[in-house]
TrEMBL record:
Signal peptide: none annotated. Pfam families: Pyr_redox_2. GO terms for molecular function: 2 iron, 2 sulfur cluster binding; metal ion binding; oxidoreductase activity, acting on NAD(P)H. This is Rieske domain-containing protein. Residues 31-86 form the Rieske domain. It comes from Triplophysa tibetana. The keyword Iron-sulfur applies. Keywords: 2Fe-2S, FAD, Flavoprotein, Iron, Iron-sulfur, Metal-binding, Oxidoreductase. It comes from the Eukaryota. InterPro entries: FAD-oxidoreductase/Apoptosis, FAD/NAD-bd_sf, FAD/NAD-binding_dom, FAD/NAD-linked_Rdtase_dimer_sf, Rieske_2Fe-2S, Rieske_2Fe-2S_sf. GO terms for cellular component: cytoplasm. Belongs to the FAD-dependent oxidoreductase family.
Amino acid sequence: MNSLADQFVMSQEKADLKADLEEEEEEEVTDVVCAESHLKDGEMMEVDVGRHNVLLVRCDGVYNAISNQCTHYGAPLSKGAASLSCAETLRQENYRGRIIMVSRDDLLPYDKTRLSKVMNAESDSLLMRRMEFFHENDIEVWLRKEAVSIDTNKKTVTFDDGLIQSYDQILIATGCRAKCLDCPGADLGNVLMLETPDDARRIHYACMGSRTVIVGTSFVGMEVAAYAIDMASSITIIASSELPYQKTLGPEIGKVTMMVKGVKLKSGIIIEADVLIVGIGVNPNSGFLKGSPISMDSKNYVIVDKYMRTNIRDVYCAGDLTSFPLKMVEGQRVTIGHWQTAQAHGYGEGYTEMVLKGQFGNMKFLAFYLKHDKVVAAAGLNVEPAVSVVAERLAEGRVITKAEAMSDDLSWLKLQAL
Ligand SMILES: Cc1cc2nc3c(=O)[nH]c(=O)nc-3n(C[C@H](O)[C@H](O)[C@H](O)COP(=O)(O)OP(=O)(O)OC[C@H]3O[C@@H](n4cnc5c(N)ncnc54)[C@H](O)[C@@H]3O)c2cc1C
């Protein structure tokens, strides 16, 4: 990579901008971290390699080092989303060129996943890195600046204030925005959506003692319901599906998570509410790419290959905005709005059968999702680290058969009988 070049990174996740793609598959030993005997087959261990903290996994005698970033808030290991991760990695890998991170937000990169879990948090407490970090690492951060177009021939991006910035290489990681309700009244003041720390605080205070209606029963809607349940005077959840999480995790798990009775379906009945919270999915933030030659799919997600390269040279894309080939589903193209590997863990679209270990009622279970007699995903509750073990195997491209999923021997998942 040209060390004098401007390096231009728009908001979040790691895409490998180390340019020299030929060398990408090569392994590099940088440190001795433990003796072979310290890590038995099937075990994982957190180790330090230079300044990096990585997870070392041994599976059938093969060692793999993966990022220590666990995606779910509350897990011991956590970090940031796309562009921050990319900028940090570039510096860790000794990239000396100029790095600019741009966001239309007015806040430094923050942990978005906490918005639905700690809704009255101070913005400061959500930050993934403080300003000193960016100064120390010579990463420029431009806030309150919105990209309005990109010219991939001239290699420039134009911003809402008229500024035109050139780049040598660009990572587009503008994520997605929450979908609005498409009905009269959707723009009224007490119809709230959850995207920013300000939104979260607004919802927190609005829910207090209020009759609260939540539209949407996937992660955001259900997490807000769980958060607000002790504060609101009532919570009514409206869903287009019969059960929560039905689309993502299937009806069986949806049933377990039902916690509010009296969900009212489209029937003409008017529900009284003081607050209406909308969490019905997302739309990609790719409007500014229209008119550029960057290929997008029919839903306007940016198409990338496994190296996060778009069809245009020097233009990369990462994070929620991408449509990328997922190895564990045979290279099928997917878009997943989830924090890093949580993506892989939770992905079960298109499954045809579910094999259940344990019982939903005991709140301790492991569900395998199968397609053509092969496991394509898993979801679990109180069975750590089984889901991670499955994800690791799938990520390595190894098949988990139906027979393995059905077997009573769960030792490979580090589980006793369920
Ligand atoms: C309430 C909530 C709870 C969540 N909880 C979880 C969870 O528990 N587990 C999990 O795995 N995932 C969770 N997610 C999803 C997770 O936050 C996303 O997958 C992740 O943030 C995606 O990272 P990203 O870098 O692609 O985009 P983002 O983190 O969304 O970053 C995109 C950035 O680009 C900026 N931007 C957009 N358009 C422009 C433009 N034109 N010009 C300049 N800047 C622009 C945005 O303002 C933003 O700063 C949650 C999401 C929400 C909203």
